[in-house]
Fold each of these.
Amino acid sequence: MRLSILLAALLSIVSFWAAEAADTQPFERGSWAKLREAHAGQPTVIHFWGLTCGPCLVELPHWGELQAARPDLRLVLIAADPLPQDPDRLAAMLAKAGLDKTESWSFTDRFYERLRYEIDPAWAGELPRTVMIDRNGKATVLPGVADLAQVRGWLDAQSKSH
Amino acid sequence: MRLLFPLAALVLFASAAAAQHQHGKPGSAPEAFTAAPAFAPDGTLWLVRPMVDRIVVTRSTDLGKTFTSPVTVTPEPMNLDWGPDARARIAVDPKGGLIVTFGTFQDKNFNGRAYFARSSDGGASFTRPRPITADTTSQRFEVAGIDPTGRVFAAWLDKRNIAKAGAAGRAYPGAALAYAWEDGDAGFGDTSIALDNTCECCRLGLAFAGAGRPAVVFRNIFPGSVRDHGVITFRDATTPGPVRRVSVDDWKIEACPHHGPAMAIAPDGSYHVAWFTDGAARKGLFYARADSADAPYSQPRALSAADRQPARPYLLANGQALHLVWKEFDGTKVAVRWQVSHDSGRQWSAARTVAETEDASDHPLLVADKQRTYLSWLTKVEGYRLIPLGDQP
């Protein structure tokens, strides 16, 4: 009996680890197309950030607040650091910003030219960057720190046009 | 007892993983992937590379075909700066003495420390790395160059004035452009600030307008958080001149471009700058020239189409030839494109691809010996390559 409790405890530790590790998905060649397909037809906000980007880390908690305030915000986070970052540190930063439940991806291929090219050939990698995609697939790019009032306005427009 | 075993194994695994973190094992912490060259007066090619947590130097006497076994510059493991625009560098003084510069991270907030190490025995050994400056706040993007008299000048982006501004209740955007001159065997002399509030995350470009007259190109923060480029030329060794704006790209951004400029000064005293921007006025990679330090810059010339991700320019003046390289991406291959000018940058040869790769790569660099100019490029698939460039395209 005690044995099975211990075993269950052990298994829960292992599965907890597995869940943690699965939180942020590796963003590789082809990931962009998969991501777009998964959200096709639904207004989606994709926010590119990075651990190596100071302004991103200041901005991130504001996205956490917006996410909490707006259940209609379908948010996807992509850590687009030019060098793949430690998943534990990414997870810790997302948790701190209240974004640990949000769909999250992280660049894991050092050939970042290729990853960026799939997303937008003209994007040279500057962060932060936000792309709002409406249900028809029309993208609006907000380079730099996003004006969240603009994001809220966009969300309002999406629900009206529904 | 049998159950304790897997538990113990888990604990062991966790501590092993933690240990790997600290030692920069591949897959945990990012690593720098750079190689920086310098030719010695005797034609030896020196190369400095970060290897996970140490800095090594190798040399080649057959133009990069073979290299000697590496000599380690850092006696202990260090948390090296792996930022995409940072790099360890090497320079050779007129006597054949070597100076290596590199940066480390002090913490997880990217506060850096810039170091240098010297070799006076032909690279057989190096002095223990010493900080370039005494201040411990943060230094990054250090660059060292040797002026025409053999004196070593170093410049970097320094955050010491942020704390001071904060204490006085003032905001301090960006970092400061700091500099120091080497002072004999004692190391670098006092640090001075040439300019406050530059952009904080881009490499610097360095050239010399004459003895004791360095010129530094950098991404500046102009009023309204516009991150366009400026050049400062020193009037003398301790007097930085005014900022000369290279172009009004109007890139207003509160973000980290990680794209620094390149500069060369030709024998006729003309200035040549190449840079990346995503400004309201123009987007992509550009080149401009000025007749002198005080002359206005020409209209920027686009080096490629913005949707080919043109980036990482490098300029080198070698005699009457001015060489320019950059990299761009066509969806499959990264290509290094090359142009040469023989009339002080007024007319350029058609751009030509001189090297390609299909995976990750360092920035393309240029280096020259007495005869020729070479592309120096480290790529994941091909390794290090030194590719001779013609004087004519």
Amino acid sequence: MTIARHLKHRTGTLWLAALVHRLSGLALAIFLPLHFLALGLAISGAATLDGFLRWTDQPLVKLSEVLLVFLLTVHLLGGVRVLVIENFDWRDGQKQLATLAATISALVAFFFLVRVF
Amino acid sequence: MNVRLYVWQRGTAALMVPLVAVHLAVIFYATRQGLSAADILSRTRGSIAWASYYGLFVAAVSIHAAIGVRNVLTEWSPLTDRSAGRLAVAFGLLLAVLGFRAVAAVVL
Amino acid sequence: MPERLTELSVSLWRGGAEGRYETYRVPRRDSQTVLDVVTYVQRHIDPTLSYRFACRVGMCGSCAMTVNGRPRWTCRTHVAKVAGSGTLEIGPLENLPVIKDLATDMAPFFEKWREAKGAFAPSRTRADAMPPIRPDSSARIAADAAIECINCGVCYAACDTVRWNADYLGPAALNRAWTLVNDERDAGNAARLAAVAAGGGCHACHSHQSCQEHCPLSLNPTASIAGLKRRTTRAYLKGELKP
């Protein structure tokens, strides 16, 4: 049976939330070594790091940073939701909580967007 | 994922909740101020506080991301559990090495 | 007012793991269920169609199949509710080996039930006094919330983690383990906690909640599994579990 058939009913809010959580984690995991390498430029002195920071002034880079802020926030909030499910008594309304987490993340990313542009 | 990996993954996750919150605040602050490299480094160089904070953060994220990657590999890739585990450990070590190097770069 | 359709176009899975969907035309009736449709095909069109059912009234769980991509009890699914455009696609339950057509092999499902130690382990003999179990004790309330499971396999078929992780015991088996963990009369919890704390146990669950969403009895295996996570974590931190 094709993937399309499997995906047919996988459109629920909570399934999407889990997918976003997983993909944001993967994206952050790929980003992190690059982030560490960039910061490591400070070893060569402030000037080298400054050169890199100038590069990050480009609009495309700033947009990527907005995306990263979104990914970090949505991974954090989605993770908090899971920690609450697993460590406290069951509470209903998980779909609403997941939607709230995504909304807050989008808002945080939007505020960041406004700040850097 | 067995109970041991679970405890380490969830434990580092819980630890990082305040760490990430602070990091987001730092990001917002730094971009608002338009800090240059010299500005940033003047704040971090010689600071025990920043060294401890980011040192802890690097340790936690190395463990957390490695276990997370292991889960994704065992579920979404054809690798065996053992191979996935080895790859995950290698990734965790990479993050730790690069991360502590970065912390040293801005703190020392 | 849309014109009332008199016929239904139904695609049924024919074959084993390899096979194809074949289409049949079935007359529409009032209050028709998906099981009625499958039965009609077998009785009037193609007697070689294989499918499973028993009670026909939503008590046994035998008739579970994949209807338009979702696992459900076909005897409790009205055609009017799922065949909006006059078409239906019916296949066997997912995540289980297909024997033939719409009938799956439930053996792996029950093997995992046993692996999760989903069986009661007695602690007393008939010579002992009966333990007084208060129905309002928190343990009994937790067990009662999950006890009605009839092993229909719908949650197992709906679970993506089951699909991705061959070792994963699955929502039904873990849900049952949770009811026994909360049973004060049970003596098998040391082995049971070890079983659900191993790889493929409760910690593999990502809380997608597909199980809860599809359970025809509105049970919540996600909550049961969360309970197991708490119980095993506590035991592990106390040194009672050695994975």
